[in-house]
Write a structure and sequence with these properties.
There is one protein chain. The protein folds into two domains: 29-94 and 133-182, no CATH class; 186-348. It is built from 14 helices and no strands. It has helices at 5-26, 28-53, 58-78, 80-111, 121-148, 152-173, 175-183, 188-229, 235-244, 251-267, 272-297, 305-319, 321-346, 349-352. The longest helix is centred in the middle third of the chain and has 42 residues, at 188-229. The chain is globular. It starts with a helix and ends with a helix. Keywords: Membrane, Transmembrane, Transmembrane helix. The chain crosses the membrane at residues 12-28, 65-84, 149-173, 213-232, 238-262, 269-287, 307-338.
Amino acid sequence: MTPTPDQRQMFRWLLIAATLMGVVWLLAPVLTPFIVAAVLAYALHPAVEALVARRVPRTLSVTMVVLLALLGVLSLLLLIIPILSKEIPLLKAQIPLLAERLNQHLTPLLAQYGVQVQLDVAGIKAMALKFFDGNLEDGLATLLSSARIGGSVVLSLLGNLVLVPMVLFYLLLDWSPSVERVRRFVPPRFQARTDAFLAECDDVLGQYLRGQLAVMLALALYYTVALKLAGFELALPVGIFTGLAIFIPYLGFGLGAVLALLAGLLQFTGWWGVGAVALVYGLGQVLESFVLTPRLVGERIGLSPLAVIFALLAFGHLFGFVGVLIALPVSAVLLVALRRVKVTYLNSELYRG
């Protein structure tokens, strides 16, 4: 059977798409900082355009926006410092006491079910002292050794920390001409449909970003107030960190919960800290999933919980930690494409017979 011209054209487009996907997959480690910078540039370029519209020179506008973005990321990371500076010294003294408390409460409970468990408190104390006394020196030694042999993990991380802001700066500086140059590669007969598709993607992503920012701020306020009412001394840094880290799906919430649980175990005697964290974070998850996200982000994106989990796993497997960050916005774009493919399929002769 001889393929029709439309079929041959479809095959050529599929071949081009498969080639591009193969190149992206092969060069994923190299492309990762560029992908991150491109996503950030897309999110930040409206701010640059707003400053330019107020007659601020573009170079100065880009510099201000990039510096503010870096300051925001640095501020989020610095929230962990007061938490760790207070908790690490307490851990050294409290881990043996925690083990002893577990022996007193958990051992009799498990014994009722025929499970005999007895923690070695002396051994745990010795291990804690060894870890916290020698961990810093060992960590520095390992880091220096890695750097001497070209230790790529550290050097790659430092390289990306420099490369992402630099690429972001040049993308924002040349955003509109770059978008126009890419647009010229689209055949003229497809440009109208491509522009409509990109406009729909831009609308979906804009709603996602605005809604996600509102969710983060609302949750930061909730966790801070709730932990403060529960009597946590570290309510402010833990609450703000948890709320803002929600932009990393599941991982941000989990890290915030671990920090809060650690603070509760170290500050309170008994099970009040654990119970308070379970209640506050359980209610926070319900609030986020059933109230804030549906109302503030809306159902426009249309990703089901299963689709979200699959997207996070798939992008995390392909691009690592960065893949988790870009999974949902990229999935939203793919969903727009799938909607159009569905409409085309339902109107095709293949479906109609």
